[in-house]
Amino acid sequence: MITNDDEFQAEKAKLQAETAAANKRYEDTQVQRQKVLLDSHLEAAYRDAGGISGDAFEALKNSLNCRIDGDRIVILDSSGNIETNADGSPKNLSQKMTEAKQHPVYQSFFKPDSTTPQNANSKPQLAPGQYYYSHDQARAGKIRMEDIMTGKAVLDDEGKQPNQTNMEGFRQQTKVVNIDKLLGK
Hints:
By secondary structure, the chain is mostly helical. The protein contains six helices and four strands; from the N terminus they run H-H-E-E-H-E-H-H-E-H.
């Protein structure tokens, strides 16, 4: 039984601290729950798009900026804005995976099909602002590291794009993606 104001204030402070700790645990649990939910949706979309198993999924996942917004998953661009299609509607995970299959850095993460170039010697068309670079240019320091990390500079492995038979190119492209992970992008 509380007999004076000092005891009351002490008990009040104790209960407030316990409540704050419980609220923090609840918020942490909700954040973890959303992360697991988002990861499972990303993995399902990757698998449905023909993604190969292994570290490729982790590399691609770490390059995407997604979040759960209410009952849907939104994909964010590098500025933090929701990515949209030509008609202005938000992109869904399936559309983003199709886009990744066409991207020179990520196309090797997927099994070949009609949406990916079949000829390993043909270069896919780059997005506006992207350019190819060679090993020699990289060794000579002529390519900005920022361009490599952001995907603006794309390795031209002597005309061969990385695929499952060109594992050296695959490893080099994966290193670029993992640098993004290290930088927290």
